[in-house]
């Protein structure tokens, strides 16, 4: 009787076990704003020096320079839409840049002197950009809604809200686009709001952590929130109502933000301020933005 040898099955990475991807010190203390495009390239701000955008191509172990912002501009957040356009929040010069698919040149599409500093951004299915705008010294903040006007230019307005906000930081939308989640750094609180045009309504406190221990956040297609616990060295996974599901331990203690990527949208990339590197882990649910990029949800 002939026995056929079979190759051993490749071991799948364990869920929620993080590993360092890039060398320590590759990015500055301002490492932030991870975003993944449809080809699986990961983009992160401040590679080597402020004002740069780095790119980590699939299966690479070190980043390469993708582009530089104009002199004096420093990026803090990146998002990429279904058409492949990259949007960058420039907190120093109060700009939102766009980089068209197939190019590397950032173009200003929105500027507002009234902004304190655009910190994090998220993209809605209809093309609206929501930007957190914290005033750290005043321990306050607000949210901007930026949309295309009748003349084709991007126009923005500070949204009204039913409460005085703290230092607005991490921000993302629910899968149906009707709810905006906002993390406030100073209080450690995560709030949800209903979106009604240029107004935020029905404010609800869904989670409270220690003050000054949260930064960026992202949602997955099930509606869960993943929150970067800066100074705690974890990613908190929350149900849509804020109930704690798990804590993912990381390799360093200062995660600033995260993004979903990989071919199935279930790889989470984390930017680490402590050490200036990127780490990642596998999760069990696809990220909202990954799904939206593919126009699959």
Question: Which strand order does the major sheet show?
Answer: 1-24-23-22
Approximate shape: globular
Low-pLDDT stretches: 1-9
Order of helices and strands: EEEEEEEEEEEEEEEEEEEEEEEEH
Q: What is the β-strand count?
A: 24
| Class based on secondary structure composition and strand pairing | mainly beta
* Major beta-sheet overview: 4 strands, antiparallel
User: How far apart are the termini?
Assistant: 51 Å
Strand content: over 45%
Radius of gyration: 19 Å
How much helical structure, as a percent, in the residues?
Answer: under 10%
Mean residue pLDDT: 95
Q: Count of DSSP helices?
A: 1
Could you walk me through the main structural features you see in this protein, from its secondary elements to its overall organization?
This protein is an all-beta fold and 297 residues long. It contains one helix and 24 strands. It has one helix at residues 288-293, and strands spanning 19-20, 27-36, 42-47, 52-56, 64-68, 75-80, 86-90, 95-99, 107-111, 121-123, 129-135, 140-148, 154-158, 168-173, 179-184, 189-196, 199-208, 217-219, 225-229, 234-238, 244-249, 255-261, 267-272, 277-282. A four-stranded antiparallel sheet has the order 1-24-23-22. A four-stranded antiparallel sheet has the order 2-3-4-5, with no helix packed on it. Strands 6-7-8-9 form a four-stranded antiparallel sheet, with no helix packed on it. A hairpin with a 5-residue loop joins strand 14 and strand 15. The radius of gyration is 19 Å and the shape is globular. Mean pLDDT is 95; it is low at 1-9.
